[in-house]
Design brief:
alpha+beta, Butyryl-CoA Dehydrogenase, subunit A, domain 3, Butyryl-CoA Dehydrogenase, subunit A, domain 2, 3 domains, binds flavin-adenine dinucleotide, Butyryl-Coa Dehydrogenase, subunit A, domain 1, four-stranded antiparallel beta sheet, three-stranded mixed beta sheet, binds 3-thiaglutaryl-CoA
Length: about 400
């Protein structure tokens, strides 16, 4: 153990990505370049420090500049607005590699790119695009996304946060809960009801009177990500901050399609890290005079892990192709998000057991991934909500309410 109590693990990151079905051959040279450069960045910048930050429940803010530089903020946003102008497979691979490092860092990138930059790009005015997107792309400005409320999580249509017309501005009241990045965000894309009860998106800026962002403490999950509330107490917001080109719940749900797609890839990255760690450990750990990898029960675990990772890789790749062709449906995205997180959690739990007592320590990334994935299985639509979306899609019958 290092003498510095803030440095729990400084081990070299030995990650080798599994590719059992040669999925690499389905990627273009650009995809591989993007994937490899993000992988290198994660090995260099994230792996050496992340366990320490997670143990101390601190967000490694110094990574924001680097995330901007590798193009992780708004990978699919056009270059003219500061985005990376990449396709959806590159975007997916980036999220896979970042979450291989830590789900909390991927969360920061997902929120910034898919939940803040995307709505401003897709539903904002040209002035709003020019004012916010270039700064958000570099990380010079950070954003958060306010949809969930204390009494409305899975059913956001019931939200009570609202704004009233007051001439040149509106008066915003209400509260949002569980908001990633809120404690340090410069702006919040907030979904609230107008005088007619329609949901609209509005950009709220830090410093506006009556707007506060208290941090949520004592999380056992996503400890290296900052989570908080958004509280609006008669906040005066200029009307030009309303996103002009969207009304209704389909606005925030369209943003979720973007983020859920990234999570489908991301969670698989966490699964790959757990599998790779368990595989290496099991070949080195000797019990009963042989490597534990030689025991059938441990091989069963590894065989099932690589099977699910491989199925997930193919599902994600195909979804990426459909997304590039603008043919991916929200229900297809739900299936992939749910599938990846479910199997990533199972893989993390099995990998944890394979490391025995060492599996619960910060010397290895598995327990951190497992705890992170307990948030990932809940946010962006819970496991059960995504199952019901698939159920509704195949039957045509709504089982939500
Ligand atoms: P419903 O009546 O079905 O739909 C209302 C309108 O929305 C349209 N729609 C969609 N549009 C685009 N994409 C989708 N995925 C869509 N799903 C539905 C729908 O066509 C309709 O349009 P229109 O024109 O007819 O008005 O709505 P509902 O109230 O019955 O709810 C459906 C349900 C339950 C599936 C939905 O509300 C839902 O997905 N709930 C889960 C909530 C959720 O995912 N919240 C996530 C909060 S953000 C977050 O967690 C960020 S974590 C970030 C991080 O750190 O990485
Ligand atoms: P509830 O909706 O109360 O659900 C509780 C349980 O009931 C779940 O198991 C659910 O599946 C089940 N359930 C609900 N309805 C049904 C039904 N019809 N049929 C069957 N079962 C049902 N939100 C944001 O807006 N922005 C963010 O940046 C953000 N970041 C987050 C970060 C973290 C770390 C976490 C934990 C959450 C974050 N969220 C964010 C909120 C997240 O999206 C919600 O937690 C999630 O949508 C679920 O809402 P809830 O927690 O209120 O659970």
């Amino acid at each position: 153990m290092s003498e510095n109590k803030h440095h729990v693990s400084q081990k070299k990151d030995l990650f080798e990505a599994p590719d059992y079905y040669l999925v690499d051959e389905l990627l273009t040279e650009e995809h591989r370049l993007v994937r490899d450069s993000v992988r290198d960045w994660v090995k260099k910048e994230v792996s050496p420090i992340i366990e320490d930050y997670a143990q101390r429940a601190k967000f490694p803010k110094h990574l924001l500049k680097g995330l901007g530089e590798i193009g992780a903020f708004g990978p699919t946003i056009p270059v003219e607005y500061g985005g990376a102008g990449l396709d959806y497979i590159s975007y997916g691979l980036m999220m896979q590699e970042i979450e291989r490092g830590d789900s909390g860092i991927r969360s920061t990138a997902s929120v910034q790119g898919s939940l803040v930059m995307y709505p401003i790009y897709a539903f904002g005015s040209e002035e709003q695009r020019k004012k916010y997107l270039p700064k958000l792309a570099t990380g010079e400005m950070m954003g958060c996304f306010g949809l969930t409320e204390p009494d409305f999580g899975s059913n956001p249509s019931g939200m009570v946060t609202n704004f009233k017309d007051a001439g040149s501005h509106v008066i915003l009241n209400g509260a949002k809960l569980w908001i990633s990045n809120s404690p340090f965000a410069d702006i919040a894309v907030v979904w609230a009801k107008n005088d007619q009860g329609e949901i609209e998106g509005i950009i709220v800026e830090r410093g506006m009177e009556g707007f506060s962002t208290p941090e949520t403490h004592n999380k056992w999950s996503l400890r290296a990500s900052a989570t908080g509330e958004l509280v609006f107490d008669n906040v005066k917001v200029p009307k030009e901050n309303i996103l002009p080109n969207i009304k209704g719940l389909k606005g925030p749900l369209s943003c979720l399609n973007q983020a859920r797609y990234g999570i489908a890839w991301g969670a698989l990255g966490a699964a790959m890290d757990c599998y790779d760690t368990a595989l290496r450990y099991s070949k080195e750990r000797i019990q009963f005079d042989r490597p534990i990898a030689g025991f059938q029960l441990q091989q069963k675990k590894l065989a099932e892990m690589i099977t699910e990772i491989t199925k997930g890789q193919l599902l994600n790749w195909r979804l990426g192709v459909l997304k590039n062709e603008n043919r991916a449906t929200p229900a297809q995205i739900s299936m992939a998000k749910r599938n990846s997180v479910e199997h990533a959690l199972k893989i993390a739990r099995e990998a944890r057991q394979m490391l025995g007592g060492m599996g619960i320590t910060g010397e290895y990334p598995i327990m951190r991934h497992m705890m992170n994935l307990e948030s990932v299985v809940t946010y962006e639509g819970t496991h059960d909500i995504h199952l019901l979306i698939t159920g509704m899609d195949v039957t045509g019958l709504n089982a939500f309410a």
